[in-house]
DNA sequence: AGCTGTCTTGACCGAACAGTCAAGACCCTA
DNA sequence: TAGGGTCTTGACTGTTCGGTCAAGACAGCT
């Protein structure tokens, strides 16, 4: 199981993810990635048949890195409303960190890659879809618990609500990147999540 | 006023918009655009100082082309709920048309460009922001009419709701592009708009 | 006819691009 | 210690990239 990824390959993936996240797939060359990873080009093509394959590996890496965090955010030990607040806070914090580190809000690398290259590289689209389904499983789980607690009606369409939540969050994060603006995430994201799911929000926007 | 844009320049803008919409900024070269517009490269650089400047002009063109359509969709002659239904139907129809014409759902060219290049080309970000503000003016207008008709409470935050609607629609359209899937637009967009604005939806999802 | 400004042309540039390859270094196992 | 698979290296390929340029075509004006 433990795939035992070689150090060089790991460095290439990490460098690619960082560079593509900051700018874009098309703006980052294989040479850029090799230089950032301190790896020669021949090694690159030893591990990856093409630049697009590395991009897919980078998407995978980004997703897998987040799994422990998502397990913590959606821990069944927390009440479901708390989990949603955790999610909103995490998204804001992660985007804020990217802005401080790279000078601008970086959004979601998988969504940006999917938008830029999904049509031309089917494997990128497929990887995005896989990750979308993976994330909506967390959302479905918390929605079911909201139903169980009576915070959502028993006949709520769990799958539909989870899909709506994914679309809402992705849109908000991408907009934050495009506009380079964290403020709407800080101010409105929590209420937006509640509204999207149909939970009566008692809170006012963050000051 | 009538800026009198030369035919050659017009062809370059149209070709650039089409090619970038289909694929992406980074995947389309100046040569590609020139070939599609049947224009020689020297002419290109006579009209545009750089590829990025053409992209901004293409965003402008895309937006201006839509203004008459938006005026029709949001005509004050229609009841406000009808305007929102018009909007949902237009978005679906436009995306469906792009899918039939180009083989896949193309999303919004300005959002894709903004995501891909906004960080590196400030003028692209600025143009996107200008267009976002322009569109939210339509949304604010219809929200005020919804308040006037008692469909929204008198103390509704018009600007906040308009911004939420923009984010929701952009997210939905970008997701349709990434996943190459029209179905959620057809099935859920109308209800999603109502939910985003806080209007009690009496309708069930489209079959 | 001559001038001027706008537009067009096609050849041209150096840099950057994705990708290749043969040769060798390294490490495990036999 | 010999062999073989994995990895590394750096030079290399042919193409394409965004952008430049000088020369000329063409129109409108005088």
TrEMBL record, chains A, B:
Keyword Transcription regulation found: yes
Q: PROSITE patterns per the record?
A: HTH_TETR_2
User: Which protein is depicted?
Assistant: Transcriptional regulator, TetR family
> What phylogenetic lineage does the species belong to?
Bacteria, Pseudomonadati, Pseudomonadota, Alphaproteobacteria, Hyphomicrobiales
Single GO molecular function: DNA binding
Keyword annotations for this protein, in alphabetical order, are: DNA-binding, Transcription, Transcription regulation
Which residues belong to any copy of the HTH tetR-type domain? 6-66
Q: Which residues form the signal peptide?
A: none
Q: Which InterPro entries does the record match to this protein?
A: Homeodomain-like_sf, HTH_TetR, Tet_transcr_reg_TetR-rel_C_sf, TetR_C
Q: Where are the transmembrane segments?
A: none
DNA-binding region, as residue ranges, is located at 29-48
């Amino acid at each position: 199981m433990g795939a035992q990824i070689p150090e060089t390959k790991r460095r290439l993936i990490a460098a690619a993810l960082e560079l593509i996240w900051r700018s874009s797939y098309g703006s980052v060359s294989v040479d850029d990635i090799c230089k950032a990873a301190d790896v020669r080009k021949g090694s690159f093509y030893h591990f990856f048949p093409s630049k697009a394959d590395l991009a897919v590996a980078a998407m995978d890496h980004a997703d897998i890195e987040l799994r422990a965090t998502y397990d913590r955010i959606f821990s069944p030990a927390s009440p479901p409303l708390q989990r949603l607040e955790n999610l909103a806070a995490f998204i804001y914090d992660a985007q804020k960190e990217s802005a401080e580190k790279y000078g601008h809000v970086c959004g979601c690398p998988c969504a940006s890659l999917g938008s830029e290259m999904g049509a031309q590289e089917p494997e990128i689209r497929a990887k995005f879809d896989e990750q979308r389904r993976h994330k909506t499983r967390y959302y479905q789980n918390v929605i079911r618990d909201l139903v169980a607690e009576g915070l959502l009606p028993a006949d709520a369409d769990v799958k539909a609500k989870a899909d709506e939540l994914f679309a809402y969050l992705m849109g908000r994060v991408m907009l934050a990147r495009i506009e380079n603006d964290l403020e709407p995430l800080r101010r409105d994201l929590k209420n937006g999540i509640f509204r999207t799911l149909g939970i009566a929000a008692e809170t006012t926007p963050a000051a």
